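Quick one - first record:
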Amino acid sequence: MSDIYPAENPPRTPAAGVRKRHVFYFSGFDPRGPAHYHTLYGEQGKLHTPLNGLDLDVGKRRRVGKLANAWTVTAGDTETEYEFLRWDDIIRNRWPKNEWQLLKSAVPVYWVFLKANLVGRLLKIAWPSALTVSYPIIAFLGLLLTGAFLAVAAGIFLPLYLGLPLAAGILVGTIFLGRWLDDRFRSFWLLRVYGAMQPWAYGKMPELDERIREFADHIAERIKGSDADEILVVGHSVGTILTVPLVVELLKREPELGVRGPAFGLVSLGNCLPLVSLLPGSGKLREDLKTVATAPGVRWLDFSARRDGASVTQVDPLKVSGISRPEGIPVRPQQFPVRIVKMFPPDVYAVIKKDIFRIHFQYIMAGELLTDYDFFAITAGPMSLAERFPENAISPA
């Protein structure tokens, strides 16, 4: 066994299960705040209860300082303090309000992607992710150029009294068509995500870096005052990227995180890490990835679904990012497949699978059939992460 994984002082994982748990949830790039996620957790948890047998009781939402909202979830003898880490204010400030702002943010981002050959590299490891990165800008620019061409043609080839109103109508129609396509395929949402995360990777979002440090201070303080058996940091979507520097900051404050005291787990849902770690300017993130993956007290589990094109599914984020691991330590993150197709009857899944947004959020939603992935059991059930997913469980390649 490696000397950075000492046999003494193991994380506390009680054989009788978890009496108290503390969950810190880091959302994706979503301007909806804690009220939405509190309602979603309560509604979906109730829908899922008949499947897993957990009698979930989700308490009222309350503020926990300026950085988080919290609610208490009870399931039998297990009590979970569930905190939603707030960065929705930063998201709204970085959310382009119209098509012109979106274009101004998207073009430089995709120029960086082009120079880094991001799409080509993604094609080799997860082609659905390469398609998801490519189609928003192609659809956006294609629609814009087609609308502009038709408007100009109408103005040139038709009499002025017909051409000008028709050209104006085409331009307005192009905008509304684009917004309809966004509602249907979430193209503009993806452009907004890329328009924020690439600048962040290059150190151009200092307010987010500061918020991550504030989160680390907040979590470290909460852990000190907690008698929880298990501490979980859960990142979804873009949150899977941002929880990495967050855990690094936590380790600076608590070097024996997970080695002494409560067991500590990092849970990634719909991993997006390679979308940033493959960029040449993301050296800091790659350093943080190695730090978290080799931290002795951090049990890191990554859950992803092959159908989820909005994430980079079932790939080793260290290996694809060119990061080597020391020999003799457990492989982190440990990967587990989420089989969304098994969560629903065939006729229901046939509808759901067409909605990229729904598929990407299924990690935190109820299914209609029970599978070995159960978000509500992980975050509120009586079994610890280590008990539910043993260290020797087989991870898919």
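second record:
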Amino acid sequence: MNFRKKMRRGKVGAARRCMHRRIASIPAALLAISLMALGAACSRQEPAFAEQISHSDSVSKRDAVQTDPAAVGQSPAMSPTEAQGATTQSASEEVQGSDIFAFVPEGAVIRIERRGDLDADGDIDVLLAVENKSADESAPRSLVLLRSAGSGTLEKAVDNPDAILCRSCGGTMGDPLADISVKAGEFSLRFEGGSRELWAREYRFVYTREVDDWLLEGVVNSTLDRINGEQQQSKATSSDIDPVSIKAFDAAITDADAEI
């Protein structure tokens, strides 16, 4: 083989070796470029990510303040009986307005709070079902009626310690206090309980301006046999019952009266 052919072959071999080195170096170069690009992207994202974490922390702290009972003037108390459909609340769990604080004794909780024009004078009054947290389950509970005295203030008009049935008076169904409903010039107390035979009693009191009092105007007594499905209902109006003031109403005694 002559000298020129050897030179040409040497040049071709050198070119091939150079090309192989370039091809072999491409992945490393690309990898380096990719790592540099990734690092730059991460650098750009770090401030936004830090801001997002800061925002998340602030949201979490805000939600904690909103849900922490101590942060909204509340303290852990007895759980409301939500299964009975009543808006049962304790004074420390959820208070509709600070205007009622002065009328809730220390150690007491509000089971139900209702607002409405109870004496039909155009002002908003308040009705509270109150119980002592330390009282026995067989103890009756109070009904407190707060009347508007003008200028946004309230005054106590009724404080009946026997108007609400005890927590154990509902039998196997639990707390019998189902609801308190308010309309203009009147309100109703509803109790439910029983076992095989379910019972429900609703007492309607109407404001009477002549005596400046709320008198018992109607009673609805319902029963349901859960085995055979038999239902019964009886009603009594003011013409069937003696007028009873809410101040003297005793739910336990009235429930025991078979004539009603």
